[in-house]
Amino acid sequence: MKSTMSRRRLLESVGLLGVGAVVAACASGAGTAEKRKMYYLVPTLLDEFQTESVKAIEKFMKDVGYETVTLNADNKTDVQQSQMNDVMNLKPAAIILAAVDFNALKPSIEKARAAGIPVMIFDRQITATKSDFTSVAGTVDIGYVAAGEIQRLLKEKNGDVKGKVLQVLGDPADPYTLDIQAGFEEKMKAFAGVEIISLPAMLWEASNAGTIVADQMVANPDIDLIFVHAAHLAVAAVASLEAKGKKPGEVMLVSSNGAPVGLDLIRKGWEQVEVEQPLYAQAAALAMFADLVVNKKEIKAGKYQVLGLESTVTLESWGPNIKIPGAAITKDNINEARFWGNLKAPTDAIQSVK
Amino acid sequence: MLCIFSATVPRFFQIEIFANIVEHSTFVGVMAIGLAIIIIAGNMDLSVESVAALAAMITGILFASHGVGLGIAFTPEWLVLPVSLLIALTVGGVIGAFNGFLVVVMQMNAFIVTLASYIWVRGLVVAVSGGRSAQDLPPPLRFIGIETFLAIPLIAWIAITCFVVFSFVMSKTPFGRHVTMIGGNPVATYRAGINVGRITVTTFVIAGIVSGLAGWMLAIRTSGATANLGTGMLFQAFAAVVIGGVSLKGGVGRLPGVYAGVLLLSSIQTAINLMGLPAHYTQVILGLLVLAAMLLDALKISVRRRLA
Predict the structure, then answer these.
(1) Total domains, chain B
(2) Taking a C-beta distance cutoff of 8 angstroms, is the pair A164, A197 a contact?
């Protein structure tokens, strides 16, 4: 009888312990899930770089134990500011911000950090205030790389760095395109024999770029090279060249951001160089340092390997900053998997930096 | 304005530049036809730009061979031309009919209905493409974007034909007269025994179909489609309609005037492309030139009145 009672009590105790353990696990699980959630505020989903960045960040963050929720600001600064305010109330582990406007988000970043929520900056560098981590390719640097390649192409064609270049910017209100322009023109300044005609494709709209190229090919038929600030604009530029009876390579074409359409144009011979933003590495770097950022641990300056690219972390006035080198894609290296335009995201799990 | 630009902007006065102006005006021009008809009928359609973008993206997804394009092909190859056109027009017509149904049958405000369509249709473009682009349309479609007839690109001829046909419809047919009457006074038109509801729905369907056509041509011109294709064209179409003399109150307006408005905007844009202005100032200059053109027009009318 006593042993039956003891057994029943034992079973009851085990049962209670079990229920307690399940409840505790659920509670802890819920807490953990909430704690491990991040929000990625993407500026727009109307271009392929941003679309692929969503997939890459969600995948890499999952590798290191974070769930990522993405909110699209539709290229509107005020919408992104509201998103920041809303997300702060959800107390996420961190906010990843690719700002619509580089500096307009400054007060929101400061507010989030004051509330104890770390803010990581992706792709679009913000130097006006401190953030917890920045992962960028450097838009000015893209201009530098493009300038180097364009100097090479002009020299190959004209025997010297001279000729006429049509530069098709994106929307002139977007600091991204202005930075590329600044970097490009800074490096081209030394070459007096190069005439640069710069025109903006309003709202980054492809047919606007096509119109510019069509007009300029009539007004300046001696244009040697066209430099467009995004690959999707290059497609419309090529359509206009084709309509003007040009053959692939007759007018050289250089583009930036490394989107799949740009790589297709290289394969067809229309485009010579695509300056890549290392999207996958930029996104992977965020995941590598996420634990340090979330746990507010020190990030050390130095060299780090990010998906095989040697990248440099420096401690800047705006916080730890990792700069990943952009690359020039040509027909010789176009098939390398590291280029995001080939849409072969790395499958190996990302490891956190300890 | 053409004379002023020809005299002042270097390399503007060329046949090829004038052909470019006509070509550039194609997409906004065709979109503006539908918008003008709706406005003359006393309504509003804010969805034309997004409808064009959706038609362009669906054309791109189905028939382009790179990016998100499925590269659907036919035998004989030229069949892609009528099939893709039919699909684009159907896409536009369906959305136009949906807008018209909500406005006429459900008695909803046209501004709100088409504003919602402007948003959800553009959202659909992003959703169906996943934000990616479709590229490389087959040669029979590219033929329309590349070839010319009498030095004017074929797509521009399509736009010109549209303007001629719809100008005739609006000025010489009972339908056109009824549309104008509805815009002027819908109650009186109804009492005169005209089916106001049916004609209003038809105007929305026409606006949708011509927007679909604009999108189809836009895809052909850019050899594919991106998710942001056509962004900003709604406001250009509105500007062309108003510059062309269509009253936003309805009941007043002629399509040749709208085409003149489109050509004016296109020539200003081309002049800016040739002026070599710093990128940051182009929008300011564009706005000021449109204003200057309108002031010149007002001055011309005032002088004419005094002389009469």
Answers:
(1) 1
(2) yes
Q: Is B120 exposed, middle or buried (0-12, 13-18, 19+ CB in 10 A)?
A: middle
Report the alpha-carbon distance of residue A279 to residue B192 in Å, rounded. Answer: 65
Terminal-residue alpha carbon distance, chain B: 24
Contact B280 A172 (CB under 8 A): yes
- For residue A207, list chain B residues with Cβ-Cβ distance below 8 A: 27, 218, 221-222, 229-230
Phi, psi at residue A81, to the nearest 5°? Answer: -65, -45
Q: Report the sign of the C-alpha dihedral through residues A68, A72, A73, A75, in that order.
A: positive
User: Can the peptide bond before residue A260 be classed as cis, meaning omega within 30 degrees of 0?
Assistant: no
- Is B252 part of any domain? no
What phi, psi does A7 have (nearest 5°)? -65, -40
Distance CA A52, CA A277 (A): 12
The helix (run of H) or strand (run of E) holding residue B153 is: strand B152-153
Using the Cβ of B280 and the Cβ atoms of chain A, whether some distance falls under 8 Å is answered with yes
Q: Are strands A94-97 and A37-42 parallel, antiparallel or unpaired?
A: parallel
Out of A45, A200, A212, name the one closest to residue B131 (CB).
Answer: A45
Q: Does a structural domain hold residue B303? A: no
ipTM given for this complex: 0.79
pLDDT tens, position by position, A21-48: 444 444 444 444 444 899 999 998 887 8
User: For B101-144, what is each residue's pLDDT tens digit?
Assistant: 999 999 999 999 999 999 999 999 989 998 888 888 999 999 99
Would the CB atoms of A51 and B229 count as touching at under 8 Å?
A: no
Where do the domains of chain A lie, and which CATH numbers do they carry?
35-136+279-323 (3.40.50.2300), 140-276 (3.40.50.2300)
State how far the Cα of A272 lies from the Cα of B257, in Å rounded to an integer. 44
- What's the gap in Å between the CA of B216 and the closest CA on chain A? 13
A-chain CB neighbours of B131 within 8 Å are 45-48, 50-51
The number of C-beta contacts closer than 8 angstroms across A and B is 128
Among B125, B222, B267, the residue to mutate for chain A (most A Cβ within 10 A): B222
Q: Give the structural domain span for B151.
A: 26-230
Residues 6+ apart with CB under 8 A from A226: A165, A166, A167, A168, A213, A237, A251, A252, A253, A254
Taking an 8 Å cut-off on Cβ atoms, the answer to whether B23 and A214 are in contact is: yes
Token pair of A336 as six digits: 């390398």
Q: Provide, as residue numbers in chain B, all residues whose Cβ is less than 8 Å from the Cβ of A242.
A: 142, 145-146, 223
Chain A residue with minimum CA distance to B65: A264
- Which of B5, B13, B14, B20 to mutate: most A Cβ within 10 Å? B20
> Is B62 inside a domain boundary?
yes
pTM: 0.80
Q: Would you say residue B206 lies in a domain?
A: yes
Q: Determine the Cα–Cα distance for residues B208 and B81; give it in Å rounded to an integer.
A: 19
| Tens digits of residue pLDDT in A316-329 | 999 999 988 788 99
